[in-house]
Amino acid sequence: MENLLTHEEYKSIARGLLLPTTAFVDGVYRPAASGATFETINPATGEVLAEIAACGAEDVDFAVGKAREAFEDGRWSKRAPPERKDVLIRLAKLINRNARELAVLESLESGKTILDCETVDLPETIHCLKWHAEAIDKIYDQVSPPSDNHIAMIVREPVGVVGLVLPWNFPLLMLAWKIGPALAAGCSVVVKPAEETSMTALRVAELAVEAGLPKGVFNVVPGTGPEVGEPLGRHMDVDMVSFTGSTETGRRFLRYAADSNIKEVVLEMGGKNPCIVLEDAGNLDRVAAHVVNGAFWNMGENCSATSRLIVHADVKDALLARILAHAREWSVGDPLDPGTRVGALVSRAHFEKVAAYLDAGTRTHLGGATEGGAWVHPTIMDVEPLSAAAREEIFGPVLAVQTVQGLDEAIALANETEYGLAASIFTTDIKRALRGARALRAGTVTVNSFGEGDISTPFGGYKTSGFGGRDNGLHAHDQYTQFKTIWVDLADDDDEAVG
Ligand SMILES: NC(=O)C1=CN([C@@H]2O[C@H](COP(=O)(O)OP(=O)(O)OC[C@H]3O[C@@H](n4cnc5c(N)ncnc54)[C@H](O)[C@@H]3O)[C@@H](O)[C@H]2O)C=CC1
Ligand code: BAL
Question: What positions does the domain Aldehyde dehydrogenase occupy (predicted)?
Fold first, then answer.
């Protein structure tokens, strides 16, 4: 990549970074009300990067209050759409101007490779914000003609104060997926970053104010799930929560909403995503490259990662040979080395969770090993259909392989999961591809490729993978918008009144 720096240059930038460590509320950085802090660790070195404000219910309440004030006085919610667009485009440009610093910060906190941060996370974050900004003044209200004597306007209004609860695997991109449409709609937001990765969200909130976003509209409250996420989920003055993370925590947000003000809840949760390769898949080398990318990109810490390979017996050996050849190219190493493809897992605790699955297969084809308490080598293993490794979300670079004899068996096995986020199918027969794609119970199905789609296409899951709406696409704007119907009676004053 011609724009990448050297390993030494990245390390030098890392040493010089100014780290944002306190909450960002009402346009300024401020410590937690209690003064408490927690350590944020660089997972690749085990070193403490910074002490971050450990916020709690009092801080959440303060941030929600400021977000509410901002929403009600209309400083953002009632600004003309073209003006909101200009501010968000300025924010995208500021992120672009600070992209290198943000990429290094993202990599340091999360263990993600600098290669991905520079070439995927930052460009996609910037593109996402621009895309939603550009959409703001192109979404029209509607008029319904119920009768000659009536007219009904269907108008969109911002939902209000929104809580955005983020995961650690794509800290910046998930922030953008949520603030893009939320701010575009005119909402005020209170962001709760994952405790492993608080700093890039804090820095983006600061840049947003520099871009002209009024204070109080974009607040960030760092802290743990129980101390910040729960009070946000239970807050009586939060109108909606959008969450990305585990299915277990997603369920909690439904309970919080039910027990409080029945706020709207949108959940993007786990996956155990199948990749079906049929005997007529065509160029197996190309298929293998997709499978390896789907399984090991971002260390498999990706809700839509290819975590199950369901392969036809006739091509299994040939495909596996090519998969192993591609996977061996994925070098494990320091995330700040631009040659590294597999960085550190996000935390020691997560490393231990993933490592516990490494001997759960019936036969290991590759990997099965760890390194330095932070790295898991790309691992490929055969698994039994009902085993934990075949059913549970591992969220690491582990590919579970199962063999089938035909399409129907493959579909049945693919759907035999509580999840339904993503799936892929490889075949050169268009009818089989479409029959398979329709039968797969997943929010995104890719044919002859691996991918999550594009900012323009909705992303979310079936079954326990998703609830309440979709990220991305214009559909995402619906989440952050209330529809109001305004009826007008067009009858003359002396006509008989009818309902
Ligand atoms: N769908 C996805 O993209 C993600 C899935 N996961 C899955 O979840 C597993 C566990 O990872 P975690 O980081 O523990 O995920 P998590 O779902 O617990 O964390 C996601 C967010 O929810 C917050 N949270 C945690 N407990 C909470 C609570 N009781 N109330 C309110 N908010 C709470 C966290 O602080 C974080 O901001 C992973 O191994 C992986 O399988 C994790 C991250 C992202
Ligand atoms: N793959 C984007 C959503 C996520 O993994 O959190």
Answer: 32-486
